[in-house]
Amino acid sequence: MKTYSYAAMALLALSAPATAHEFKVGALVVDHPMAFETTATAMSGAGYLTVTNTGSTDDRLVAVEAAFPRVMIHTTTMQDGVASMSHVDAVDIPAGETVKLAPGGFHVMFMGLDGDPFEVGEAVPATLVFEQAGSLEVVFNVEARDAADMEQMDHSTHGTGN
Ligand SMILES: [Cu+2]
Fold first, then answer.
1. CATH fold for domain 2-156
2. Is the pTM of this model over 0.90?
3. pLDDT at 148
């Protein structure tokens, strides 16, 4: 797995334009991993990305690893206008399809920030683990969010993660 991701990073360095924020492993292309800035007291932050499976074999995102006490994959469902979130074991990445982890749906939950909030411009390293393609090291860019987004995707109900 390790050598696989190093090979992918080497390829990326050779082939990607400096401005692209894209990561590849096997047949998978991960575009623009990002996380929204958090409040100073936030205990968790949410990460988003797009995965395109250019191959002919279905894959699944089965884990995300990063330097936090807990990292999980969540999904969001709306019921009677109330967003609730639950843990999922994996996100299906079917052959030939593009799957978005985006506000209101699947997202990566970085839990246990504990006084070290995500700040705009920060880069959060993480490893995406795919069932077929293996591990892929990526960087989530922390970006600003507006007040409306903040309202919609309040993750304070996730608890402390400790
Ligand atoms: Cu969540």
1. Immunoglobulin-like (2.60.40)
2. no
3. 53
